[in-house]
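User: I'm new to structure prediction. If I give you an amino acid sequence, what do you actually give back? Let's try with this one:
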Amino acid sequence: MALPHDGGVDPNRIAEIIVLTTGGRRRGSGYRVTGTAVLTAAHVVAEATEVRVRFNADRPGQWTTPATVAWSDTGTDAAVLSIEPPAGSPEVTPARFGRVADDRHAVVDVHAAGFPLWKQRRRPDGGQFRELHQADGTVAALSNLRTGTLEITVAPAGADPRPDASPWAGMSGAAVWAGRHIVGVVAEHHRWEGAGRLTATRVDHVLRSSDEAHRAELAALLSIADLQALPEAGSDVTDVTGPATGTPSRDSGTSQVIGLPVAHGIELFKNRTREIETIGRHLGDPSLRMVTITGRRGMGKSALAAKFMDLLHRGEWPGRVQAPPPSGLVNLSTRTSGISLERLYFDCAHLLGPEHLTRLRETWAAQLPVQDKLDELFGAMGDRLFVILMDNFEELLDDDGHIEDEELAVFLDCLFRAGSTPRLLVTTQVPVRLAPELRRFVAQVELSEGLRPAESVALLRELDRDGSLGIAGLSDEELLRAAVRVHGVPRALELLVGAMADDALTLPTLQDVLENYAQRRDVVAGLAQDRYRRLGPESRNVLGVLAALRTPVTQEILHRIVTALDPGLDVEPILSRLIRVHLLSVDRARRTFALHPMDADLAYSAMPVDGAMGRRAVERRIADWYADIAPPHSAWRTVDDIQPQRRRFDHLVRAGDFVAAATVLSGISEWMVWHGSVLGAISMHLAVDGRLTDERARLAHVGAFGHARLTAGPMEHAVDLFTEAAGLAERLGDHGALQNALFGLGDAYRQLGRLDAAVSPLARAADLAHENGDTEREVHAILSLGLAHSYLGDGETALAGADRLSALARATGDLLTEARAWNARTIALLTLGRWDETITAGEQAVRAYRAAGIPEGINNALNAQGLALLGLERSGEAVTMLKAAFDEASRMENPRSEGVCLCNLAWAYWCDGRYAQAAESAERASVSLRIAGAAEAAAARELAEAARARTVPRPRAAADALIRAADALGGNVEVVGRSWLVAHARRLREDS
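Assistant: Good question. You get back a string of structure tokens that encode the predicted 3D arrangement of the chain. For your 992 residues, that looks like this:
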């Protein structure tokens, strides 16, 4: 007897797929489509050595079964697994399959259920599992036609637990449902498309793409009887063309249209679903008479309006509102037939048919006031709905937004006064200025943002369909960078491609055009605002300062910067005019003003390089202003406190003043590193690297850059930087910089496991700091020297160093010195195997670091306590402690510390008998350690191999991998001991 179910997703048939490969373990999702077949994605089971499928995990009726790959196609990323259900289990009804129509606009409600990474949970015993997630969303039917996939918009992932993996990892293979039909399989998540976009394989595309034999085999597995008649998944979904919107279906007829569409290529229009639905809601509201689409030039206002009118023409009313179907549509544009009252009147008259046209012609010819003519037109329209589009309306407005055509002004007045009138859709760069009492009848939809990333990439590909410009062959990442560079502005993307196509002499690449796009006349001519061209030099100077600022500012700040450059410039009236002509955006709540990023690019490129109001002078003045408002070092508590210095650095770089920029950076770089912003510090160093000819500036830069690399890796680069810094410092006689460079060099050698090379520079660094009277650097050098002795196995000498630090802490009363003294003591005791004392000292170190407000060594102290707990064979507690250590290392953006903690966590899982978690943690450790250039990366990789072998189980293979891991470990006392691994390997061999 078949298991009863009324169609649609059945929670008892949702599959969790566990895959073993030679490279590790992975999870995926699937759905049991027949009694013996599970549908999933091909990449989930690729290169599998073993596949198991689990249903109803941790619920009544849970069962797990081995599976084999019965059908797979990597091209479309679909696969079917064959399973053997338990004896006596009820039969299941084959799932229904359907398709999403791809020949018209529709937004289809869909849902999928699977096991994504971001739903990872922890059991009371510390074990981890994936909770089921139901993702409800929509498919835009025309998206992804090129690749034959479905673009699913869902609520964004609730977390992003691993930077090296998608938060949706594990959701792959989940069946995508539209009502009661499976229409696809979740296949990919592209990070650059955001956390709320998934890509799914289309079932109908899989069937079409397969050869006849392969297709027949798939159809048999899925129990699809008729390959040519997959039903359209529309009878039980919400379609913008169907009754759920309260409007007629596509088959009920279309609206009559007068006038050509105001934009080309409507069928290729890029998504902007939210804006289309907003326009639909407003125009469907009988209390509103006019909707204006505003935005800078090139944002796609005309294309958006044209697409909306096209949807109305095809019987679709976006926005899910109860609105009557329009009886007629009128397209007017200043760029085609022009916009005038006469044109508007007669276009509407033609829509009304012969029975009204003659009468309305007579009315127009009569010597009647305009109001009477319009009253006759509106009367003929009656209760029927007409929508009139007026495109590029800014050409009929003055810079303040007032209508210059008197007859059109009368038309708008009548439109707002009459009881039954047409609805007006207007596109304009300048908002229409109306009397305050009329604002209640108008809604505005502002296009301030460019296309979304995926839409920008798709548009660029469509602009080079034949591939002749080389764009089609570029990766999505390369195209995405281009889109971001021009802020996703649609017209800018078109002009970039046009510039490539029109230059038959130099044959520029896309990257070539991007590098100077704001200076190319062919691009600027198509993007620059007409109002900008009419500005005087003083107004352009104010715009230039705002363009250089690149952030919203108050009137007071702008006045201070501008008048320092030109004391005679009267900022307030200029600012008022720029606001009035809508060249600036205004944030009323914060009372700030800003340029659109595209306008900022164009205004900045138009500035002269030199001169009193040139780029260099403006950038330097802004940098000076940030220097004036920057808080002193004593007031720094969080990374937000050094934002003025970071902004100052950016403006100095843009001014070409790299020496001054390097000086600013050297003052904040190490502080950023110790407070978790190491990647930000590295990006700043890269901005000046190779551009410094002044030796002192170069010394400041390479020394601070070395400390950033010391934390983030690669460690070999840190050695190179510190070696160069030491040489420069010796030559310049700078003992402070020499001490700093020697300390960094010794610490880098220590972390690389080259302990003999570490001791000498660290010892000299400590002596130099003492001679220089720099207690803080002396403390840091002694700490690192003590760690080197610990790594060498000389715990007693390391303990003596900790005592020396304790004495300095008592003498100075410095909380950070006290924390470092406890940290050194913790590692020294760990070296000596004094486990209980290690735990006590580690607790003291954590408390002291927190009291000092500096987290630099918290992860080390927690990590040492975790190892001590392992030494005491308290593996469960060790897991908790080492997870906390990893979290602290992650906050510090330190991949080496992350890798060390993960490696130790993997061993804690091993000791606790949780080999799957051990393998996963060890794999992550290997990645982090490899990024840092740490020697322990190979050991972590072998430990992962050993843990995977234990899950099978293959004890001898596990023992061999453990020995290899032990051999790869150096003398780092902060990583699991080599002897522990060897002992476990020996027991495994004895027991096998």
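You can read the tokens as a compact description of the fold. Here is one thing that stands out. The mean pLDDT is 85.
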